[in-house]
Amino acid sequence: MSLLTPERLYQLLPAIHRLRDAEQGQPLRALLAVIEEELTALELDAARLYDNWFIETCDEWTVPYIGDLVGARAIRPVPSAGVSMRAWVANTLAYRRRKGTALVLEQLARDVTGWPATAVEFFQRLATTQHMNHVRRAPAATAGVRDAARAELAQAHGGAFDPYAHTLEVRNADTRGGRHNIPNIGIFLWRLRAQPLGQGVPGEADADFISARDSGAGWWAMHPAGVDAPLFNRPRTLTGGALTQAAQAAREDNVSAPLRSLALHAELGRLRAGMAEPPPVFMTAQQPGLRVFAQLAGESLPVEIPRERLWICEIPNAVTLPVPPRAAALDVRRGRIAFPAAANVQQVWLQAAHGSVADMGGGPYDRGDALRAASASLSEGTATNADQGGFLAPTVWQAGVTHLLALGSTGQLFATLRDAVTAWNALPAGRTGVIVVMDSLSETDAAPLTINLAEGSRLMIVAGQWPLVPVPGALPGTLGRLPGRFEARDTRAHWQGSLRVVGQAAPASPNPGALFINGLLLQGPLSLSGPLGQVELAHCTMLPSTTHITVAGDSPRLALRVLHSLTPPIAAAGPVTSITLADSIAGLLDEGAAPQPALNAPDAPLDLQRTTVLGSVSGLTLTASDCIFDAPVTAVRRQTGCVRFCYVPPASQVPRRYRCQPQLESDTRIAALRAKAAAAGLPPPTGAEEAALRAEVEATVRPLFSARRYGDPALGQLDLRCAVQIRTGAESGAEMGAYEQLRQPQREANLRDALDEYLRLGLTAGLHYAN
User: Fold this and answer.
1) CA nearest neighbour of 571 among 586, 582, 584
2) Rounded mean pLDDT, 311-320
3) Strand bridging mode 617-625 / 643-644
4) Radius of gyration over alpha carbons of the chain, in Å?
5) What is the extent of the structural domain holding 16?
6) Is residue 3 one of the residues assigned to a domain?
7) Which superkingdom (predicted)?
8) For a 10 Å CB count at each end of the chain, is N or C smaller?
9) Comparing 341 with 683, which gets the higher pLDDT?
10) Quick one: 386 and 528 in the same domain?
11) pLDDT category of residue 45 using cuts at 50, 70 and 90
């Protein structure tokens, strides 16, 4: 009998008893209803206990107990990478079936770190004298250099796919980086991730593209902001998995790494020659790593340039290339593309991937969590559907901005962001609105764009899409984009121009306006003025150069929040309620630009969490945790606030510190020096000796970044040579700064623990970062 059947017990009684119970006011029915509630609770608990027998359906608290039954060691969860104890326990038996093999080591590395990985048995790359009973055709002791693309693999990816033999190397693999020796195994990891953008072809309902930018020097930048940025491979999923036993080791097309020019040149050359073998790896017909669409004079839409008409070369800053008509020259290392001068190309659309360290800044990744958080603030008193990342019409005014779809007659689709904002500005005060920018094409506007926020008004501008749904009243199978729901993923809108946000409420209004921007790539200054309540930038990128975020002195009630974003310097001319930065990188500047304050708000309380600040900071008060300050920090009022688990430069003036570097390391070493002197019966160290020790610590315990320039995929990533006190100095034991969420030390520890169990006896494993 179903658990949902009402009055189960009462219905089991004979009809005569139910009739007599009805004559007496149904006391028996009431009694059985109470008993049935307890019975239902017991049945549900028994069903829950049955679900707890299986790792796929059990409650989270039972996962360690099931893991203990199979002898699975506990691992450190990494939510940002999808690494969990549940998956580890579920796959334990599958791991053990192949224990000691290179494939299971590779699978372990992927599962416990969340990074693409490959395992290399270095003894197979040794140049040795072969036995006649065991002849190996490869690798040969003599390297062949006729194939340039193959030879490049010796250095690319840190040598993970090196095809050549090497002489013996006697360094220890796990501590000294040794490689080519009989007991050595190498685990290569790719920390950068590819962010692919674009799909479909012009004219399709779900098509999307990014815009190339004309440099004016004979070539186009493949990044819409016009910066040099290498193109990345779109990694393909390996066939099989832990439960199905992956049939092959990871190859170059399975990892997220920059595209190699020589490899692409060789592939495209074979395609032009009509050679079927070997088949393409990066430019396959089903999933090409790059697609180029060019619109020539007189054509209505861009047309795709076939793979065979793409040529790989190096494009200098000023170029005139003899490129054939209907063809393009590509520089994938810099991210540039050139066409013949006679082609008269009007615009270029691309589908490509760029690299990044994490899901930060404007990008096509899923931003649903941040959107739901913003929806809670946006929808006060408004009917919403925040769980699905959308809003119910018509309670909320919603508009879409599209450069690809027909506008129709609904009045809810606009051709430009300016048109949508103009429609918003015309609405009465107190409205809640959402503007969804529905594609990744660039929009450039020379005139400043002003967003007015009246009293009680709340507006969100988000890069996303209205899902394709059947169109009511149309032919069966007809799909269209209808307002009412949207998804914050797959697009990264690019706006180039000056953006002004003006509050229009009364200065003493209890409910000033609020603005939320999510997922945009902004190229131009952002100015905030007038009575404003809240302005939030989430998962946005604001490019450096002349771009700044400025707050006028007439916004005392403003709460400025910057979340998961990349921003240039921020300046506030007067007092504001608060400035909050979390999981972000602030203070980006152009390469070679003069240093500037990254956060200049001497009259504003500052709250910084897990943020990397590339420049000096000044604020009224300061509360910071897990941050890296690259330049001195000054707080006017130091009696309030706290700085915890941060790197704070020596010349800073901040509130009380707790476990901050380099002060913590200096104090620790001086205390050890004093204790050593006391134990030996010697006088304590002098002030000069302690000062010298502090200077030594300050010179060595400091942040080192792989890159500081926007466009470099490793922007803000800590260099492997950076002091361990910073790489593991956050409260969670992860690195300080914007990438604390990645939990890199925890991933490394997970992998080393797993290798202890699954590595064959006598072998030693070393970890190598390919990027």
Assistant:
1) 586
2) 81
3) parallel
4) 31
5) 8-51
6) no
7) Bacteria
8) N
9) 683
10) yes
11) confident
